[in-house]
Amino acid sequence: MATELDKVDVLTVGVGWTGGIIAAEAAKEGYSVVGLERGRARDTEDYQNIHDEYKYAIRYDLMQDVSKETVTFRNNREQTALPMRQLGSFLLGENLGGAGTHWNGQTWRFLPYDFQIRSMSEERYGSDSDLLGDDDGYQYQDWGITYDELEPYFDRFEQTAGISGEENPLAGERSNPYPTPPMMKTRTLQMFEEAATNMGYSPIMMPSANLSEQYENPDGESIAACQYCAFCERFGCEYGAKSSPEVTVLPTARKTGNYEVRTHSNVVEILTDEDDDSQVTGVRYVDTRTGEEFIQPADVVVLTSYIFNNYKLLRVSDIGEQYDPETQEGTLGRNYCYQIFGSATGFFDEQFNTFMGAGALGMAFDDFNGDNFDHTDLGFLHGGNMALTQTGSRPINSNTVRPGTPSWGSEFKNDSIENFTRTLTVQGQGATSPHRDNYLDIDETYNDVYGVPLVKLTYNYHDQDVERQKYLTERATEVMEEMGATEISSSGELTDYDIVPYQSTHNTGGTLMGDDPETSVVNNYLQHWDRDNLFVVGAGNFAHNSGYNPTATVGALAYRCAEGIITFLEDGGRLEE
């Protein structure tokens, strides 16, 4: 028998960036907020002496325990989906702060083109263009919001996080400069900048949540300056110099006195009002230590977990219509997207200090991103951000060897040591296209440790993805040649997607936003079309992926969502643009 608790104004399911932003904004307005986090509590003090590469980068101490919950995977509907038994292609965060704790800090705004990819592509290439791929199963659609509408929320996120950067001539217009200057420009970045400039491109320092200087944000939270220690991705920051929920929005929410975080609290169901199916009443959750069940009523419920869990809770709670790839009807689970990478690794005679670095220390250019170049004869839409990063070459995972070198033995060891500080990689980060056959569902066979079905991922690359990756590889190779590498090893062409090894944690889709309930799950305030007091915010809202890391866009959507929630609490009803 579940114990029913006292009702609160706002309940968030998950306490990372999105849950923290919504908690801070609602709590500052005087509303009572509870955040349910299924992992444990943690803060900057817990990351002291965390430079243990094996524990955190290899054994994934900060990540989700896949023995308790994972996803099942298949390339197509004819295959049997099987569980991902250990973390592979993507690393799912867990515990307070979520993936916002172990992220690298690369903080790009999506391009104006991203939000209107369908309409802008039709305008440039024609509504019947083969590039749109309607007859080939591609499902390009606009987001129901424009870059200009979202720009103030991008600015709010950057000011809160203190992002270090410089203006990008190929990106959308900004209302304010970045709050802190760009990070230092190392020798390797200077080489990339010189090569890209010589080729007529527009390189800039990467926007970074590893701050270039001490910063106090508008809420009075202090963020330290980066020490360039090279332990960012897969690690928490022991200096408090990587903007994360623990050093920004969560302290702000707590200081109001209106916020409570409950850790070890795993939500298993969203509860719908029996008398009014346009409303939810709260959630049912399990204490992961004792097994006790609780019902937490709330005026507003906000799903602020990772995309798989947001999708899963809607699906098992029977909220919304599951997407059917056969008929292309339904919206829940639609347009799952991932990323592709086209890279070139160069071998040099000189040594670089690549053992130092930071998660977002890099230079990049967008000449081949979005629609910044003509796609007429290329066979694909969109593109990718081209970058060289110096994130820090840690010794266990840094074994770059020349093509043809054995993968073990004395020759492998010698080549690994020789090239440890003599290799650089230029990489084009692109997205995979939304396709009718790439989607989320729930598994009929496998459950998590609480008896709830696992998420089933059906996903593979398609022709546009293959061509886009090939194109980015060619461009990356040209840049590396201009940088003067003595030997270059370039990415091979894509074959079937495999869920191992690690590739990117930038999963998107499944709970799309839009202006039409027939093609989206939530409106542009992230309010569910079928439940007025239910909001869903995260990268699952993306109608397609981009050539960027998603966090800044997720943060902007969270601020947009928070505004909508406060308006709803004041006025009720359906939010309209």
Automatic annotation (TrEMBL):
The residue ranges of the Glucose-methanol-choline oxidoreductase N-terminal domain are: 145-336
Its domain of life? Bacteria
Q: Which SUPFAM superfamilies match?
A: FAD-linked reductases, C-terminal domain (SSF54373), FAD/NAD(P)-binding domain (SSF51905)
- Annotated keywords: FAD, Flavoprotein, Oxidoreductase
Gene3D superfamilies in the record? FAD/NAD(P)-binding domain
Q: Which PANTHER family match?
A: LONG-CHAIN-ALCOHOL OXIDASE (PTHR46056)
Its name, as the record gives it, is GMC family oxidoreductase
Q: In which organism is this protein found?
A: Salinicoccus sesuvii
